[in-house]
Amino acid sequence: MPSFEETVNSLRHQSGEDKQPLPRVTLGAINRDGSFHYAKAFGEDSTDTPNTDAVHWIASCTKFLTTVAVMQHMLTHSSGMAYVFMHPLLARYQELQGERPLIQQTVKESYHPFLLFEPGERWLYSPSVDWAGVAVERVTSMKLGDYMKHHIFDIVSAKDVTFHLDQREDLRARKAKNWERVGQRLEEERSPVWPDPIAEDQGILTGKLLRPETIKLMFQPHLGSNSGLDKPDEYPLPVQNAIWNAVPHDVPVSFGLGGLVNTAAVPEQRGLHSLTWSGIPNCYWWIDINNGVAGIYLSQLVPMGDQKSVELLTEFEKFVYSSLN
Q1: Could you give the residue ranges of the DSSP H alpha helices within 13-105?
Q2: Rounded CA separation 117/227 (Å)
Q3: Segment 248-297, tens digit of pLDDT
Q4: Would you kindly state where each structural domain of the chain is located, as residue ranges?
Q5: Separation CA 230–CA 238 (nearest Å)
Q6: How big is the chain by its Cα radius of gyration, in Å?
Q7: What are 33-46's pLDDT values in tens digits?
Q8: Cβ neighbourhood burial of 262 (10 Å; 0-12, 13-18, 19+)
Q9: How far, in Å, are 56, 98, 110, 191, 305 from residue 52 at the CA level?
Q10: So what's the pLDDT on residue 128?
Q11: Does position 204 have pLDDT exceeding 70, yes or no?
Q12: What's the rounded Cα separation, in Å, for the pair 104 and 126?
């Protein structure tokens, strides 16, 4: 049986007509008591240093952080809103409006607050957590990043997290390269569309950030109707991968407060009622609260939901649990 590092290299450096190479990835996992800790970067020998402290844009992986900041329709993506790429009517509306950057300066400028269905009627990935972040700002009279720094990042000693990379020269120097998959090639992104997560995950595992009863609530299913998560094949493959990532489609799921929750254990992988989510540049995380395990997969590769990235994520997760067992 090949070692895990051999498996990583075989997935990253493929050959043949259907090759789908992968760029730099950083993998991390930890358990509740700290007896298991894995952190390793796999980079290009000629251009990347194999340090694990490279800076990554993690996009929607931050939705879990906002959930920690504010606690049901808004936090479970069942509010009635949706991202443009999740619904054909919104995509058509956007087309008629003309091209514009994916991410604007404010939430109000970035997302259309149209109601596509009655709140609670179904699940559909949406900017509702982004709007919940705006609510935190209004209530606290603080910028969301400042609120998170004081109430989340400082508590778990996560110093390398920011919403404003332009204000952190020390982090810009360590920024990982951005890549785009174009057919069978990887092309470096020169103009990306976007202007210590593992420490935060352990903060949930150890109970530093939230009360036990609050943590228990976050990892429970919260959808009255599972419509929108009961038929994975109704979404394009990249969207399926972004939502389900390493959770097989035959495993039932719902949505907790902050991420997808599997309502049955995944063989050789995460346990019952684990939380998971992803970010556009193929960043993924999971927290297995029952087994006390958390893991993260970081890359800077677009488009989202890359099939080879999810394959490597799945192999990494199996490696983590086999190591613990």
Answers
A1: 63-69, 88-97
A2: 12
A3: 999 999 999 999 999 999 999 999 999 999 999 999 999 999 999 999 99
A4: 4-56, 210-324
A5: 17
A6: 19
A7: 999 999 999 986 44
A8: buried
A9: 10, 40, 32, 24, 22
A10: 92
A11: yes
A12: 16
Encoding tokens for residue 264? Answer: 């049955």
Burial of 189 (0-12, 13-18, 19+ CB in 10 A): middle
- Calpha distance 132→128 (Å, rounded): 6
Q: Which phi and psi angles does 266 have, rounded to 5°? A: -100, 115
Are 324 and 24 spatial neighbours (Cβ–Cβ below 8 Å)? no
- pLDDT tens digit sequence for 176-188: 888 999 988 899 8
- Residue type at position 293: V
β-strand partners of 285: 277, 296
Retrieve residue 78's tokens. 């069942």
CB atoms within 10 A of CB 227: 14
Instruction: For residue range 147-170, list pLDDT tens digits in order.
Output: 999 999 999 999 999 988 888 999
Terminal-to-terminal C-alpha distance of the chain: 17
Question: Are the beta carbons of 128 and 116 closer than 8 angstroms?
Answer: no
How far, in Å, CA of 279 to CA of 193, rounded?
A: 13
3-state secondary structure of 288: strand
What pLDDT score was predicted for residue 86?
A: 94
Residue bearing tokens 């009279």 = 141
